[in-house]
From TrEMBL:
Pfam families for this protein: RGS
Gene3D superfamilies: 1.10.196.10, Regulator of G-protein Signalling 4, domain 2
Domain RGS: 43-159
PROSITE patterns, alphabetized: RGS (PS50132)
Cited InterPro entries: RGS (IPR016137), RGS_sf (IPR036305), RGS_subdom1/3 (IPR024066), RGS_subdomain_2 (IPR044926)
Protein name as it appears in the record: Regulator of G-protein signaling 13
SUPFAM superfamilies in the cross-refs: Regulator of G-protein signaling, RGS
Provenance organism: Chelydra serpentina
Tree of life domain: Eukaryota
Length: 172
């Protein structure tokens, strides 16, 4: 792990965000903008629909040991775009095995009716077969983890770094 300016050690989760701030060939130090980061605090939807929001949020969820929620949500977003019936069946079974079936390695917290509906439809999955489970997981993240994310070290230090960088560039 790296060190912060005051000599404190950076947590591995903060450190893995460093790749978003490496200088590019033009000397730009940040890929994620202060404007984008500030939008994240406006609503959970804004966080999830920006370019880097889901990446940073997933990093935070790893610290809570609940990153299966966003992984499932992102897998569903990809799944809904699959046109091929054969590929859809294959991916649906993988999602089911990883997140839905009892004792799945990354089992998500959904209610019995949602789980049972997926079990009934998994043999011939439609593009919308995970929609209810995805909605439940989205609400869990929005109500539970998102408020904690906004107060987290990850979000606060990221915002501070971008504000400091922005002020530095104005004074040059």
């Amino acid at each position: 792990a790296g060190r912060l300016e005051n000599g404190q050690r950076m947590s591995p989760n903060i450190c893995c965000l460093c790749k978003l701030f490496r200088e590019d060939e033009n000397g730009n130090t940040s890929k994620v903008s202060l404007e984008e980061v500030l939008q994240w605090s406006q609503s959970f939807e804004k966080l999830m629909t920006t370019k880097y929001g889901p990446i940073i949020y997933k990093t935070y969820l790893k610290t809570e040991y609940s990153d299966e929620n966003i992984e499932f949500w992102l897998a569903c977003e990809t799944y809904k775009k699959i046109e091929s019936r054969r590929k859809r069946i294959s991916v649906a079974r993988r999602i089911f095995k990883n997140y839905i079936q009892p004792q799945a390695p990354n089992e998500i917290n959904i209610d019995s009716p949602a789980r049972e509906a997926i079990i009934r439809n998994i043999q011939e999955p439609t593009q919308s077969c995970f929609d209810e489970a995805q909605r439940i997981v989205y609400l869990h993240m929005e109500r539970d983890s998102y408020p904690r994310f906004l107060g987290s070290e990850i979000y606060q230090k990221l915002k501070l770094k971008l504000q400091t960088d922005s002020n530095d560039s104005l004074t040059r």
